Each structure stands twice: as C-alpha cells, then as structure tokens.
Amino acid sequence: MHALKVEALSKSFGGLQAVKNISFYLDVGERRGIIGPNGAGKTTLFNLVTGQLRPDAGHISMFDRDVTAMPVHQRIKMGLSRTFQVTNLLPNLTVINNVILAIQALGPTAFGMFRPLTDYKELYAEAQRLMTPWGLWETSDMLVRNLSYGQQRCLELVLSIALKPRLLLLDEPTCGMTPTEVASITKMIHALGKDIAIILIAHDMDLIFGLDLDSVNVLHYGQMVAEGSPQEIKLNSTVKEIYLGTED
Fold first, then answer.
1. Which of 11, 136, 220, 248 has its CA 20 to 30 A from that of 39?
2. 67: three-class secondary structure by DSSP
3. What percent of the chain has pLDDT over 90?
C-alpha cells in the first residue's frame, strides 16, 4: 500500500503551468524531500495533495483510496497533516489553546465549542505530553504572537503531530531560522515515528542531506527533472546546473 500516489498531475493558473504531468509514489513510512528553485511548483504540488487546489488533470490517491475530488477535512481524517511556509497559527490565543484545539479537532469533542477547554482534562494531559519534549510547555500561557519565530515554527510542527498523521507534509519547516533553531526542528523530525510518511520541501541542502531521507525529487518549472537517493541527487549534473548555473 502506498501512503501517497500522484499520477500525471497538472495545474495551471492562466497561462502559467505551475505543475506539469508529475507522477510519483510514497511508501508508508518513507521520507522524501522535494527541492527546486523558487517558482518550481513545490507549494502548488502540496496544495494539490492537501485538496486546497483542484488539479486540471491527473489523480491523487492516499492509502490506495482516490482523493482527487475529496475536500481537505476528509483527507485530514484519513491521516493527512501539513505545515506551511508561513506559519498558520492562531496568534491571539495562548500556546496551550492552539495545541488543545488541534488535538480536539479529531476527537468526539471537536464541536464542543460552548464548554471551556479547561473542562477537558485529558486534552491538557495530551497537550503537555506533546509540548514538553520541545520546551514549549513553559510557554503554555503565552499568546502565540509573543513567541519567537523559532518557537512558532516548533509549535506549528507540534500542531501537525497532534493530528496523529499517517502522511505529513512539511513546507520549508526551517525557513528563516537560526542554526540552533534548525537543529531543534531537525531533531523533532528525526523523532517522528517511522509509521509516518513524510514529504519535506526545503531550500536548505544541509537539511535535506542531514535528515537521512529515503529519496529526493527535484522540480524545475513545474516538472520533475530528477529523482533518486540524496547522494544521487547531490551528484546529478542537471541538479548542479539548476542550482549553480553553467559557464559559457
């Protein structure tokens, strides 16, 4: 069974074809990187997989079930979770409330909006379990907008894990972070269970090659131009040309 299967996927915006006939599959538990210059179509591909965009052509399957026309919330119930290149948090709520709302989303209390969250002791216990290893429990009562940028990126990853994903999409999880913050996020990703299939978009080659990924795809102008192990991609002449250019 494949965690994700993308077949001949295409998407255009007016005269711009952002994704062109892309096909690949991801096994259960596999870790895959997607790299490419700005405008290569990486985030558009993620938006197609999550259901935020509808493809012009092609098919998407999750866990051997066609989800091409399935809405976002149903894909989430099937085990899909993601982070965004720009943090997608609730800045005027506390850290603990952000985490509890994420946990609550999949449970029987998802629509219990008229009871205070403090009524749900089990949710607080689960939030503490998720937050403590990454130093976020000490920030529980802080408003999210008052966290450092690195703490916000860490929190977003915790929220994605709170959804108990089987397929996790990470869009530039270390973008704009300091080396120390990058090391913390890298540790978090390493700690994720091997039952979670992961696709990671990144510009940071050190991150790509430091995560022991199973495979890497390279996108350029919406097309898949290379696929292989991290070492194969590192030595690929086409990839070198895309990132470094060629001499006249």
1. 248
2. coil
3. 57
The CA distance from 227 to 99, in Å, is 36
Q: Residue 76 carries which DSSP code? A: H
DSSP class of residue 94 equals: B
Residues forming a β-bridge with 81 = 168
What proportion of the chain, given as a percentage, has pLDDT over 70? 92
Closest CA to 37 of 220, 217, 215: 220
Are 102 and 161 in contact, with CB atoms under 8 Å apart?
no
Beta bridge partners of 133: none
**Could you give the C-alpha distances from 195 to 168, 176, 212, in angstroms and in order?**
11, 29, 15
Handedness of CA 78, 215, 177, 183 (dihedral sign): positive
Quote the CA–CA distance of 71 and 54 in Å, as a whole number: 10
Q: State the Cα–Cα distance between residues 87 and 158, nearest whole angstrom.
A: 12
Strands 167-171 and 80-82, sheet pairing: parallel
pLDDT in tens, 162-205: 889 999 999 988 888 888 888 888 888 988 888 999 999 987 77
The 3-state DSSP class for residue 127 equals helix
Residues in Cβ contact with 70 at an 8 Å cutoff, skipping those fewer than 6 apart: 51
> CB atoms < 10 A from the CB of 168, how many?
23
Residues 6+ apart with CB under 8 A from 227: 24, 215, 216, 217, 218
Higher-scoring residue by pLDDT: 93, 87: 93
Give the residue among 230, 226, 228, 227 at the shortest CA–CA distance from 242: 226
